[in-house]
Amino acid sequence: MKVVLYISSGVVLIFTLLYFLEDNISAEWRTYQSTYRGLLKNKQGKDGQPVPEPPDIELKQIYLPEMNRVDRCVTCHVSIEDPRFANEANPLKTHPDDYLENHDPEKFGCTICHDGQGRAIAWEDALAWKDGKHWEKPVLLQPFLQANCYRCHMDTLAQTPHYNRGKALFESSGCLGCHQRDGKGGYLAPEVRGLGDASFEVKHPVDSLRARLLTRFNNNRNLAYLYESVRFPLAQPANSVMLDYGFSKEDAIDLTVYLKSLTAPEPGVTRLPADKPRPLALLARGAQTFQLYCRACHGQNGEGGVDNPNYIKGEMPELDLLAERMFLYEREDADVIIAAIDAFGDLNVADPEPDVPRYAAVLAQYNAIRDVILKGNPAGKLDPDGATPFNMPSWKKSISLDEINAVVAYLISIYDFDDEGDF
User: Are 67 and 269 in contact (CB under 8 A)?
Assistant: First the structure.
């Protein structure tokens, strides 16, 4: 019995010693720092000046309690601020470009921009790219790294072209007709704020696409899910109402970058104030609001044609004939009404009344159209026992009355008054 005890104790001692040696003597971060010391000595000695004592080999970290972060990335990336290491390989390569001039690592850390496991001291653990691990924040590479700029910045940056294009695609494709963003938008689909850090236990790619997408995105299940949602929307559950826009691979990548940016506020992070946007002219404001909230159902230019299952009319209504519905058959009359909306904001308070034929009927239609936008309108069922078609939702919580008036003016303006053969 004593022999067994001695042997087992010896085995435990050996493994303890091996663990100590691996963790303290032969750890990979020690290798990187030793290499750094050697390279540093050579670089410093080239100018003939005395070589100062190289830094000690030790664990290094940036402690940011207000941000709930401990970043040990600098344990391996010891030369990120040394321009002499610009041509070295990672992790001894100087940080590219001039970002650190305005992003002091001691103030912001590393993972606020790059994600990854900041407390890790092993390369693979810090990257968090291994499959089967419950790591929510794998390191991001370009172009997806651009998403994290908007944890602090509110204005778009020239350095984030993929984000900029993704945001423009999102806002010009009518996504807010169904989704909400920061509480503004439709009610048929989930709020998009938070998708960028949604747990992969809740939001993940379907089994049929999982392996292919995870390989493409370094096992980042959040990125894989976001890309799948816009590139392969029909792969989602059968009860999903997500439309297939036929986005290209490039479009889907840019949209993924933008959606990845829609995260919850980071603790301790102060967001930079946004520049006050320039006020848009009436028709430009109306066009912008239409693209944000209406395009998905009513067509890019209000031409309709979007299928609405089990709706008595089959398709979403077109809106490019709004001028005709308001009895505005001449361009001159439409221009008078648009000018009145621009001047007074609301036709009901226009003084004097616009000089157009049948103005009382024009005003009644104007108010009826605004009421539909404000209050919504149910879509009649083709089959009373069938599925519920898309209904026109109430937009009074998401779109201001000024924006609604601008949309009405914009829709009047896009009518084809030159096609007189219709009358």
Answer: yes
